[in-house]
Amino acid sequence: MSQPAAKAGSPLAAARPPVFSKARIVAGPGFNRWLLPPAAMAMHLSIGMAYGFSVFWLPLTRVLGVTAPVAGDWQRSEVMWTFTLFFIFLGSAAALFGHWLEKVGPRLAGTVAACCWGGGFLIAALGVYWHRIELLWLGAGVIGGCGLGLGYISPVSMLIKWFPDRRGVATGMAIMGFGGGAMIGAPLADWLMRVWATDTSVGVWETFATLGVLYFVVMMIGAFGYRLPPEGWRPSGWQPRQNVRRQVQGYFVHLDRAHHTPQFWLLWAVLCLNVSAGIAVLGVASPMLQEVFGGRLLGEPVAFADLTSAQAAAVASVAAGFTGLLSLFNIIGRFLWASASDWLGRKGTYTVFFLCGALLYALAPMAGELGQVAAFVTLFCVILTMYGGGFATIPAYLADLFGTQYVGAIHGRLLTAWSTAGILGPLLLSGTLEALTAAGASKASAYGTTMYLLAGLLVLGLLCNLAVRPVAERFLTPVVPPAALAHTGAATGGAREDPGDPHPHWRPAPETWPRVYLAWIAVCLPLAWGVGSTLVKSSVLFR
Description:
The chain has 543 residues and is mainly α. It has helices at 11-15, 36-47, 57-60, 76-79, 81-104, 106-129, 133-153, 156-162, 167-196, 204-224, 255-258, 262-293, 309-344, 346-369, 373-402, 407-414, 416-438, 443-466, 513-538, and strands spanning 251-253, 476-478. It starts with 10 loop residues before the first helix and ends in a 5-residue tail after the last helix.
């Protein structure tokens, strides 16, 4: 006979944890861990639209004039402050609320992220409607930036705990979504603005409102898909190995002690230097390609300064394809390199990043001087795989060094390196370009010199990475083994218990696999659409 439903206020109902509590989302035997990467990707594909915000800059400069800017319209430099605020508050929120996330669990953190990101779009919509730029900055930049930070780190610790055997693969699958968000969001936003545009509106505030609701719903679905493993859980048949990839098995470093270790600051420098070089290139990708090659992008030997207006428009279109292609390889690198780090080791993977990256940056000016467009594009596509791979590999690197107990919070604090790099990289590159051109250097020559500068940043990163060693024993705290769960295989749909093993483990229940396939299809279809659109636009670069 089936059990009667628990009435409100009854002991059975009172015993059930609140919907947002950490205890409520601890999975039971038979749960399929492969449901979690699609949930994380739903979160990251939404917040990844931050990289696609450039689609709004031009329309935001003609909110009043509609067809052309008029007196009182915002300047592009004003609206672009939103992008800077994104990454300042991403790092700040991740650092400030990382410990809170570990205490309350990823579902509540993901829900708050959805409210901040979706709500930030709605506040930005009001700012555009009332033409108050401070509301645009507050909504999209500050509140949205906090949603970025919480949404970015909310699934990381959870995935590392569920995939101790494939840490790099797990974080790579989730974090590649952040790189892919712009490939879906930017063309979607462009289409929505055209749909909502009228004789009196450019369609921006309506698009902000639509995206705010859409992203809130998608992120809430992701957050409610989050689950935590029981304490000490591990995959069926997997045994931990003490090696260079898992340096603290049976131990962890407390959050309050992590930033007292040299390893934390070495990895902070590693991430900051890798991101500074990559984000500097992303910031100038379109103008760099146009100014280095000019008419050669169209098959005509014409310098950039001598292009007609029609040629300049065609060159700009080609350069937009280049920017999209870089985003695609950013995504590929997040999964490819993070997965490879499970075999190469995290330190070995970063060593490859810095050695190969420095070499490729040094070769780029030569490709520009020889007029080899395809070679130039290929070099930067490979460079961007390592830029994305650096983001996806760092959580597993932290787990190897500091253990998994506080890895989400430690990762949050480390992301201040991203905020720093978001300011340092573009400022360093733009300042160097301005100084060189002011001294009389051509644009193409100035870009070549900056590439050598970025190569130097990667050499510094290599030295920091080589200095990383296992954490000293005085910082380590032993993990207390959990008591064995009292479940039995017959009662739990596939659970398997070893009385002599204190760690719970099980195989996924067979009936969970259809849900896994549907979840993966749901996140991969829009991503495939974005990839296809990017490949079509960028195909002209290799004609």
